[in-house]
Specification:
With 365 residues, the chain is an alpha/beta fold. The protein folds into two domains: 81 residues, Ribosomal Protein L15, Chain: K, domain 2; 248 residues, CRISPR-associated endonuclease Cas1, C-terminal domain (Four Helix Bundle (Hemerythrin (Met), subunit A), Up-down Bundle). 48% of the residues lie in helices and 13% in strands. The chain has eleven helices and twelve strands. The strands form three sheets. Strands 1-2-3-7-9-10 form a six-stranded mixed sheet, sandwiched between helices. A four-stranded mixed sheet has the order 6-5-4-8. It has a two-stranded antiparallel ribbon with strand order 11-12. A hairpin with a 3-residue loop joins strand 2 and strand 3. Helix 4 runs parallel beside helix 9, helix 5 packs antiparallel against helix 6 and helix 7 crosses helix 11. The longest helix has 28 residues. It is globular. 40% of the residues are buried.
Length: 365
């Protein structure tokens, strides 16, 4: 895995514990997270690492063999450090955050009322639009980069991008006063665009990856496993936190249907950032040879559901963090990708309160 040393130099690790500038990732049996005054103490066998709480933004636990002290969790709450409990082959199953909420009660009331009027349809269409524009623009960029080296593939990628644009235009023309009446039609059009997108991604990736199409639950092939890891372990907690800070209800979404325990609004708002944070990062790592196909899957997995190798997880976490911190230009504003993840739920609040229109997050090519 040559070429990643510059990325990994910013990491410190104790066995299978990794510390980024703002994220602590706990990934092995026998790790203990404790507290010493205003510091987190991470122990593994005879190794000890102390981290000032002010330097930590989130703690992600992906192993059932990690132990926590109550005082460490208290320190996390005191410093607004989000603690995420996740499994390798599934969405996070618990998130610890302070009980006090930000945002106004009025915004939540409007969030529920909007479900039964035209605002629900508008927001659902906007969430899809952000996703599809990002997908189409990415394929057009890939086509531009391959115009000289592989003109036939470049033409296919560009045409797929235009087909996704066409699907998005048809979504934009849909009208309705209740999302329950329009959801199926919107989701069918989104699924049509997804077929064009993932078929194009398949053609970009090296054949030895064995990627034949998008799989979600239980995927064990290399690329789908990395996609699921990025969406579930990195993007989901970040959007969850952003929705919480905006004072909105996690479970009252519009595009994704209501279901007990399903954080529909978080899933809705993830759509605008899936391609920009996860897809783009992974495709770049693969096509540039930073991650090689034969290094991705774990060969000595001890914990159930662990598909990816430890080395690849380290590279993915570093790369996703780098992408979150990267500066982009959106809607006349310059900021980190992460800052826009936190801005968009607040823009939803303003839309629900009828203070402004909602502009979906998407970047040009």
């Amino acid at each position: 895995m040559q070429g990643v040393l510059s990325i990994l130099q910013c990491l410190l690790w104790l066995s299978c514990f990794w510390w980024f500038v703002v994220n602590v990732f706990l990934d092995d049996f026998g790790i203990f997270l404790g507290r010493k005054r205003n510091r987190f103490i991470v122990k593994k066998n005879n190794e000890i690492k102390e981290i000032v709480a002010d330097d930590v933004e989130s703690i992600i636990c992906c192993s059932s063999g990690v132990a926590f002290s109550a005082s460490a969790l208290d320190l996390a709450v005191e410093n607004n450090v989000q603690v995420v409990f996740a499994r390798y082959r599934g969405w996070p199953y618990a998130v610890l955050m302070p009980a006090s909420m930000t945002g106004s009660v009025r915004a939540r009331r409007e969030q529920f009322l909007a479900y039964n009027d035209e605002r629900s349809v508008v927001l659902a269409k906007k969430f899809i639009a952000g996703k599809l524009v990002n997908q189409a623009n990415f394929l057009k960029l890939m086509a531009k980069n391959r115009r000289q080296t592989d003109p036939k593939l470049a033409e296919k990628l560009y045409e797929s991008g235009k087909l996704i644009d066409d699907a998005n235009e048809r979504i934009g023309r849909e009208q309705g006063n209740n999302i329950d009446e329009k959801r199926l039609q919107l989701m069918n059009l989104e699924a049509e665009a997804a077929r064009y997108y993932w078929d194009s991604v398949r053609q970009i990736l090296p054949p030895e990856l064995g990627f034949t199409g998008r799989e979600t639950r239980g995927a064990r092939d290399s690329f789908n496993a990395m996609l699921n890891f990025g969406y579930q372990t990195v993007l989901f907690p970040e959007v969850w936190k952003a929705v919480s800070y905006a004072g909105l209800d996690f479970y009252a979404g519009y595009l994704h249907a209501d279901r007990s325990g399903k954080p529909s609004l978080v899933l809705d708002m993830m759509e605008e950032f899936r391609q920009q944070l996860v897809d783009r990062t992974l495709i770049g790592l693969i096509t540039k040879g930073v991650i090689r196909p034969n290094e991705i899957l774990a060969t000595d997995a001890v914990e159930e559901g662990k598909v990816l190798s430890k080395g690849v997880i380290k590279v993915l976490l570093a790369s996703f963090q780098e992408r979150l911190d990267s500066e982009v230009m959106f809607n006349g504003q310059k900021g980190s990708l992460k800052s826009f993840i936190h801005l968009q739920p607040r823009c939803v609040v303003r839309f629900l309160l009828k203070e402004s229109d909602y502009v979906p997050f998407c970047l040009g090519w």
